[in-house]
Specification:
Blueprint (H helix, E strand, L loop, with lengths): L2 H13 L2 H8 L3 H15 L4 E3 L2 E3 L1 H28 L5 E6 L6 H13 L4 E6 L2 H9 L5 E8 L14 E14 L11 E2 L8 E3 L5 H8 L5 E4 L5 H9 L5 E4 L10 E7 L3 E8 L6 H10 L1
Parallel strand pairs: 3-4, 3-5, 7-11, 8-9
Antiparallel strand pairs: 1-2, 5-12, 6-10, 6-11, 6-12
Helix pairs in contact: 1-2, 1-3, 1-4, 2-3, 5-9
């Protein structure tokens, strides 16, 4: 299958429109139609319904393969270019919102002190996007965080060859309102909180808690942002509980944090990068991993 035809197919399916795909890709609408027809002829299957424009069952199955395949192709291209790149001092660092904790921030400061010419741009985004940006060469390094058993690696999307290094682990706390009946406990077990009201948030996906503990953890409210201050205000107002690294609840925070006793879980931060030639990116990676 031609990667260009796959790209066109994914774009049409995402927009649900031939004309919108044509505008994004810079083709005429008739050229887009011809490319989809060529892909369908290659497979001998109808991939897109026309009214409305949406994937057929065969098209949905192809989408499951197409996006990871295209990501791997972009990652391969970026990896080859990265290996041949000249050293430079302007770096782009992609990170999940909770990845840059006090330890990581201090290491970043040390790296900048060691390399006075180092110019770093930090962009925050979701974990899958961090991995994709690094794989595609849009970011030199990535920092991803998540809940894991001690020393266990994070579950990251398959983006091709990539180095991942655990650089920090921190205890977790259950964030709850200050007047909650359990707020005075010395520690809490997740198994005792499966029926409590929880916040659904990218900072603590409930699906991950269900993977670790089992069914339960009903979502009382969904918060799609990544601002910890807003999240703690929601907790304090009684909208639901959440799980956070202990450093995310500073003194005077709106919510109360009670240490998690069991299961034994930590907030883990990992450094992600592809092949790094000698230079500023490799030096920064070493300092962050120290």
């Amino acid at each position: 299958m031609d990667p260009h035809l796959l790209t066109t197919f994914v774009t049409v399916a995402r927009h649900g429109s031939f004309s919108a795909a044509a505008a994004e890709l810079g083709y005429t609408q008739s050229a887009i139609s011809q490319q989809i027809a060529a892909l369908e002829a290659d497979l001998g299957l109808v991939l897109l319904g026309r009214r409305p424009v949406e994937p057929t069952p065969a098209g949905r199955r192809l989408l499951e393969h197409a996006e990871p395949l295209l990501l791997r192709l972009r990652a391969a291209r970026a990896d080859v270019l990265r290996a041949a790149a000249l050293p430079r001092h302007r770096l782009r660092l992609a990170a999940t919102p909770l990845a840059v904790n006090a330890v990581v921030a201090a290491r970043l400061a040390r790296a900048r002190a060691q390399q006075p010419r180092l110019d770093v741009t930090l962009v925050t985004c979701g974990r899958e996007q961090v991995a994709a940006l690094v794989a595609e060469g849009e970011a030199d390094l990535g920092l991803a965080d998540g809940i894991a058993a001690p020393s266990d690696p994070l579950r990251l999307p398959d983006t091709g060859p990539m180095t991942t290094v655990g650089i920090a682990e921190e205890d977790l706390v259950v964030a709850l309102p200050g007047d909650h009946p359990l707020a005075g406990r010395a520690a809490l077990r997740l198994a005792d909180l499966v029926d409590a009201r929880w916040l659904q948030t990218p900072l603590c996906p409930l699906a991950r808690l269900r993977d670790l503990v089992g069914d339960g953890f009903p979502a009382a409210l969904e918060y799609q942002g990544d601002d910890v201050h807003t999240l703690l205000n929601l907790v304090a107002a009684g909208h639901g509980l959440t799980l956070l690294p202990s450093s995310a609840l500073p003194a005077g925070a709106a919510a109360r944090g009670v240490p998690l006793a069991s299961p034994r879980l930590v907030h883990r931060v990992e450094l992600l990068h592809g092949a790094l030639p000698p230079g500023s990116a490799a030096d920064l990676a070493r300092t962050l991993s120290a």
